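Here is the promised in-class demo. Please do not try to memorize the tokens; focus on the logic of going from shape to residues.
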């Protein structure tokens, strides 16, 4: 709290004027993160009728957000126990709505014969894992730009769940190039 107070130019007591405590602050941060996901990812994806294009929209917009802005959304995964039970339920409901959007999209793809022979729930959780883990390894000052990483990320993520014959993007880039000596870790 001292670090936050210093960063915003308030005393610790001044912060508590606006925030009721650490749990409330955590809830506000998580609410902000979910608001970003709902606005930047979910709302945009819901406007895409084709499930394959919708899945691409979801993966691309969420991954881009993390690559360009950072991984603030990942706090939702790690800090849930720090919330009050009421706040935990609220965040869980919001996370569940996002999960259901992705899973529903994958179920639609399965019905169209476009999904690999995988369980839609497992595929949805796997895509979330891939997306959210990006904040752990990507460095903006690394050798790869956000656009380069996003391009490869989309190729990997979509090929992981979609059957090859049904890819919206013509041809596969996998194996087209070798990136010797480059690292997104900046070393």
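The designed amino acids, position by position:
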């Amino acid at each position: 709290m001292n670090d936050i107070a210093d960063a915003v130019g308030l005393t610790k007591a001044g912060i508590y004027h606006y925030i009721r405590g650490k749990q409330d602050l955590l809830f506000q941060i998580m609410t902000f993160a979910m608001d970003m996901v709902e606005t930047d990812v979910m709302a945009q994806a819901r406007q895409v009728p084709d499930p394959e294009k919708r899945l691409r929209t979801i993966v691309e917009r969420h991954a881009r957000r993390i690559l360009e802005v950072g991984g603030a959304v990942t706090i939702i995964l790690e800090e849930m126990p720090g919330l009050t039970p009421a706040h935990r339920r609220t965040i869980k409901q919001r996370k569940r709505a996002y999960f259901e959007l992705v899973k529903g999209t994958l179920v639609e793809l399965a019905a169209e014969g476009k999904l690999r022979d995988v369980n839609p729930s497992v595929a949805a959780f796997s895509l979330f894992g891939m997306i959210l883990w990006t904040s752990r390894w990507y460095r903006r000052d690394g050798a790869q730009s956000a656009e380069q990483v996003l391009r490869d990320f989309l190729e990997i993520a979509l090929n992981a769940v979609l059957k090859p014959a049904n890819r919206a993007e013509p041809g596969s880039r996998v194996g087209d190039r070798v990136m010797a000596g480059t690292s997104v870790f900046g070393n």
